[in-house]
């Protein structure tokens, strides 16, 4: 019984060390880029803090948070349609017009392999 207990304790210790190494390798940070390809200033929350992003502005983020972004995908006054995404570490994103709807105030957040110019 003692051998089994020791083995389980060792296995748990190695798993905890693996998690610590993975966290330290990444530095405990999330890194990503967000561009605004619309003609609107876009307010959003990133890891609980509010920001504004001007048209054609590109922001490079490094955060200790989880990269949770919340924004209103319908920019008309008085209309709220929140979208929530967990941004990928080292991801490249762009706010852009949502051409799948007839509403000219609809926006979307798209992930890119390379950011368009």
Please describe the structure with a list of short key phrases separated by commas or semicolons.
single chain; 117 residues; alpha+beta; Immunoglobulin-like; 4-stranded mixed β-sheet; 4-stranded antiparallel β-sheet; 21% helix; 39% strand; globular
Walk me through what this model shows.
The protein is an alpha+beta fold. It has one domain (28-112): Immunoglobulin-like. The protein contains 1 helix and 8 strands; from the N terminus they run H-E-E-E-E-E-E-E-E. The strands form 2 sheets. Strands 4-1-7-8 form a 4-stranded mixed beta sheet, with no helix packed on it. The chain has a 4-stranded antiparallel beta sheet with strand order 3-2-5-6, with no helix packed on it. A hairpin with a 2-residue loop joins strand 2 (42-46) and strand 3 (49-53).
Number of domains: 1
CATH architectural type: Sandwich
**Helix content bin:** 10-25%
Q: Which strand order spans the largest sheet, edge to edge or round the barrel?
A: 4-1-7-8
Q: Could you give a short account of the major beta sheet?
A: 4 strands, mixed
**Strand elements, count:** 8
The helix tally amounts to 1
Q: Tell me the series of helices and strands, N- to C-terminal.
A: HEEEEEEEE
CATH top level?
Mainly Beta
The radius of gyration is: 20 Å
Name the overall outline: globular
Strand content: 35-45%
Class from helix and strand fractions: alpha+beta
Mean pLDDT: 84
Question: What ranges have pLDDT less than 50 throughout 5 or more consecutive residues?
Answer: 19-24
Per the CATH scheme, the topology name is Immunoglobulin-like
Rounded to the nearest angstrom, the distance between the terminal CA atoms is 64 Å
């Amino acid at each position: 019984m003692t051998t089994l207990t020791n083995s389980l304790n060792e296995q748990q210790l190695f798993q905890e060390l693996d998690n610590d190494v993975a966290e330290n390798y990444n530095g405990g940070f999330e890194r990503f880029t967000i561009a605004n390809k619309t003609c609107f200033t876009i307010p959003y929350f990133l890891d609980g803090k509010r920001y504004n992003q001007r048209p054609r502005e590109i922001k490079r983020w490094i955060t200790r948070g989880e990269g949770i972004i919340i924004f209103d995908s319908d920019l008309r006054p008085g209309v709220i349609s929140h979208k929530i995404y967990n941004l990928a570490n080292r991801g490249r994103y762009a706010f852009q017009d949502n051409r799948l709807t007839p509403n000219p105030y609809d926006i979307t957040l798209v992930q890119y392999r390379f950011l368009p110019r």
